[in-house]
Amino acid sequence: MAAILEIQRLAKHSWNQDNRESPYLFEEVSAVIQQPECISVIGPSGQGKSTLLRTLALLDMPDQGDISYAGISYREKDPRLWRKEICYVAQQAVMLPGSVEDNLGTASRLHGEVYDVQLAEQLLEETLLAGLDRKKNASELSGGEKQRIALIRSLLLRPAVLLLDEVTASLDNISARAVEHMLQQWQAREGTTMIWVTHDLEQAARTSSRTWFMSGGTLLEDQQTIDFFRRPATEAGRQFVRFLASEAAL
Amino acid sequence: MTLLALSFTLLFVIATMLISVWQKLGLEKEIATGTIRSAIQLLAIGYVLQYIFRTEHVIYLVMIISVMIGVAAWNAARRAPGMRGIVWRIALSILTTELLMMGMLLGLNIIEPTPQYIIPLSGMTIGNAMVVAGLYVNQMRREVQSSKGEIEVLLSLGATASQAMQDVRKRAVKFSMIPTIDSMKTVGLVQLPGMMTGMIVAGADPVEAVRYQILIVFSFTGSAAITSMLLSILSYRLMLTKELQLRPIPEGTR
Predict the structure, then answer these.
(1) Which one, of A133, A128, A131, A122, lies nearest residue A147 by Cα?
(2) What is the rounded distance in angstroms from the CA atom of residue B193 to the CA atom of residue B179?
């Protein structure tokens, strides 16, 4: 059986201010995802975690290497259909013009499908937004509300792979836990694969079964989450875990 | 008007240049070049028109309109540096507008099918279409720049190029038509347009001059809408790559 997602020796240049190519932001990134799972992507800032997710969603093009979804390379697939299956949710939630409802219905409008009001309501409730006026102009929402609406907007597309870029970064603890719980439920119901960039080690430990540690311009470690936190395989990994643990203790 | 009388109008230019020197505006050189260019261009076109009107040969008519469209497209495309393939798209939009306008004016017998009517009216239509096209491409780039996030959200949700660019296109079309619509609203109240003024000065009946001016105003609005919408259809895809990603916009928006 073909893997859900296969990444082979992926590399991406970083661009400096003059739009000139500079050395690789990351290279030699390889991984195989055989069954639906939740993967945390952690690592110091500037290692290209967001760029990796954007590249997997084809919002940026790989400079080298290949990505296959269900055995088909991105080169042979219409990027539009690719993104219907592999959806990126940005850290900075951008609302489209119109109401909250307009935003939630975007995926169904784009693909001529019926808007599942019940599902939308359920997800709003699970993310503690049950009381939100859906007629409200989306641009008037708070940062945390926008982030949750953007997430639900993507979930309603029902992608097979969800690429989450610090989607709880603007949320308070309670809302963040609610979103985590909702996403775990969603995964159990829909069998969605999630690749989740986070800076919160506890969140990574709570939500994921597998952890990717990005450092030194590559995917340095790819381990079961429990193993990574118990005993990182590399010195960089150990330092990173120690550093974040001391930060959390403060 | 005698040439002597005409040369007296240079006094206006000299006065402007003196003011520029006095106020240290540094515009003398530009004013001088502008004066010489406009005088030569206008005198030359006067003689060309005189020749064409006499010979009444269609090929000259086609040639002069082609040159007008070519220059207009090239000029409008300067508003979009680095956008490959934009010149011919603008040219095609302006050409279509011109053909539709002339087809309507001639087909409905609104004007006579002679170079005396066709050339000046074509010049005005093409000139207006050029301004609209320049505004459109300029605004399109700004809109894409400021709506990057919106476009990426739509793309990440599986939008087609046309779906991702729809709102941006709509806003740019609207923007490019504002000057035409505004001048339509205030025409006759704020300014007496060039064509009408010219006809009145040349001794035409003001009411007759006004009729032609109304014709111009209406066809300008029509041509602005056609040029802008057509150009938006022809050019939105240039803002995205083959793989449906936003293309970086080269610097130097003018």
Answers:
(1) A128
(2) 14
Q: Does B91 share its domain with B208?
A: yes
**Per the CB < 8 Å rule, is B152 touching A106?**
no
Q: Look at residue B252 and tell me if it is in a domain.
A: no
Q: How confident is the model at residue A18 (pLDDT cuts 50, 70, 90)?
A: low
The strands making up A161-165's β-sheet, listed across from edge to edge, are: A86-89, A161-165, A193-197, A38-42, A210-215, A218-224
Complex ipTM tops 0.90? yes
Residues B103 and B218 in one domain: yes
C-alpha distance from B162 to closest chain A C-alpha (Å): 11
- Average pLDDT on A41-51 reads 91
Q: Determine the pLDDT at residue B195.
A: 76
Chain B residues with beta carbon closer than 8 angstroms to that of A107 = 157-158
pLDDT class for B180, splitting at 50, 70, 90?
confident
Question: Within a 10 A sphere around the Cβ of B67, how many other Cβ atoms?
Answer: 11
Q: Are residues B51 and B77 in the same domain?
A: no
- Nearest-CB residue to B243 (from A61, A107, A150): A61
Rounded to an integer, what is the distance from CA A35 to the centroid of its chain? Answer: 17
- Matching CATH number, A5-249, of 3.40.50.300, 3.30.420.40, 1.10.1740.10, 3.30.750.24: 3.40.50.300
Percent of chain B predicted with pLDDT > 90: 45
Q: Do B139 and B82 lie in a common domain? A: yes
Percent of chain B topping pLDDT 70: 97
Q: Give residues with Cβ within 8 angstroms of B233, minimum separation 6.
A: none
How many CB pairs below 8 A link A and B?
64
Same-domain pairing of B103 and B216: yes
Confidence label for B112 from pLDDT (cuts 50, 70 and 90):
confident
Residue B49 vs residues A196, B67, B187: alpha-carbon distances, Å:
70, 13, 28
What number of other Cβ atoms are within 10 A of residue B128's Cβ? Answer: 24
Q: How confident is the prediction for chain B on average, in pLDDT?
A: 89
Q: Are residues B75 and B87 in the same domain?
A: yes
3-state secondary structure of A211: strand
Do B61 and B41 share a structural domain?
no
Of the pLDDT bands very low, low, confident and very high (cuts 50, 70, 90), residue A74 is: very high
Q: Could you tell me the residue range of the domain that residue B232 belongs to?
A: 57-239
Residue-wise pLDDT for B8-67, tens only, equals: 888 888 898 899 888 888 888 888 888 899 889 888 988 988 888 888 788 888 999 999
- Beta-carbon separation of B163 and A110 below 8 A: yes
Residue type for position A205:
A
Clarify whether residues B21 and B83 are in a common domain: no
CB B13 within 8 A of CB B31: yes
Total domain count for chain B?
2
Burial of B222: CB neighbours in 10 Å, binned 0-12, 13-18, 19+? middle
